[in-house]
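Researcher: I'm preparing a figure for a lab meeting and need a structural model of a single chain. I don't have an experimental structure, so a prediction will have to do for now. The sequence is pasted below. Please return the structure as tokens so I can convert it later.
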Amino acid sequence: MIRIAIIEDDPVMLEKLEAAIAAAEGLMTVGTAQNCAAGRGLIEAGGYDVLLCDLGLPDGSGIDLIRLEAGKGRDTDILVITLFADQGKLLATIRAGARGYLLKDGSIDDCIQAIRDSRRGGSPISPIIARQLLGEIRPEAPHPETLPVSPLSERESEVLNLLARGFSYAECAEILHVSANTIGTHVKGIYRKLEVNSRAEALFEASSQGILDRR
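Model: Understood. Here is the structure written out token by token.
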């Protein structure tokens, strides 16, 4: 059973998330908060596997709560769910310890899948955010004689480039005609070789090294 805590100030959104989690097999909500003050108490209490955290809270920033949870050193997956399609906020949340970044205008089903993916080692990011991130950090094309040598295998590079385009693990598996578990194995290899812990960090590092396919 995946236990989920939610920090969200919009009561309508909070209700939708709770209802979707209650209807999903193997998921349950164990606590909610609607502001930073209550969120800090929720985090101190612990007892959850995934933290869904909004950024724009009435009494502060969700980034502070993400940093608080990350500092606990627990095996918690932190997912941002927000209205802000902003690469600056994305990078700030990743640096604070978030594993995924979802937009509220996405479907609730996507959020449920993101929760499952995060517990399998994935780092779900809304496709529009992934595109913005790549556009922001993409380096200039290197001279052909100085093309970087990628530490990734050919298949790992294929997987990373698909993830960079916003495809889910399941979609990557379908495109490459392999199982979702195989994609997960490749992602673990990517993280290990790039010395990162999330999809956003992998995209940032790979783009910084010039080893992402720009087509």
